[in-house]
Amino acid sequence: MGEARQLGGGDRAVLVALARSAPDLAVDITEVDPAEVPNLLRGGRLDLALVHEYDNVPSALGAGLDLEPLLVEAVHLACPASWNPDREITLGDHAESRWILANPGTLCHSMAVRTCRAHGFEPRVAHHIDDFAAVLRLVAAGAGVALVPHLGVDHLPAGVRLAALPVGRRTRIAYRRGSADQPLFAAVAAELHRAAAAFRADDGIRLDENS
Fold this sequence. Notes:
Blueprint: E1 2-3, H1 10-21, E2 30-31, H2 37-42, E3 48-54, E4 65-80, E5 98-101, H3 107-118, E6 124-128, H4 132-140, E7 146-149, E8 160-176, H5 183-200, E9 205-207
Parallel strand pairs: 1-2, 1-3, 5-6
Antiparallel strand pairs: 3-8, 4-7, 4-8, 4-9
Pfam families: LysR_substrate
GO cellular component, one term: protein-DNA complex
Protein name: DNA-binding transcriptional activator XapR
């Protein structure tokens, strides 16, 4: 099983559940670049993968692959808590702020740039960081502001404020067409849905309405 990005602690929960419900099933988890997922699936090096897409950056896996909806999460604007603590945070307030973005070519980078442009400004990029925990630590240190998906906030450092934006990130299960009825897919997909159900209880996450 491959992951374009981790599902919080869901991958560990899936492994524990599978060890109990399907002890003869061997599951290996590998984090891969999202751009590599289609070829790895088609080539048989992955049996299924968790992939993400943002409302303003749709996925393009190409032919021969299917997607099963899993969950939708909010995207947050993260800024230092010292920034106008008595005011509601808006994206437009940070048109002149220093920004922390993911590296160019990633979905997260494209999402952040498109979101800022939709609000009438180009982000002034100060740092390129792919790790959400490191991004939040930089925000806490006053090094800039950032956009972070809900599941990227495993731990919110002191000194960081979050504001949910009208942008969502979808997590889906990608697999080779025709493999949905195989025991491997059925067992792993069932446990992924069970793990996702725990996250859906959170205010920032909901069931994908397309599922």
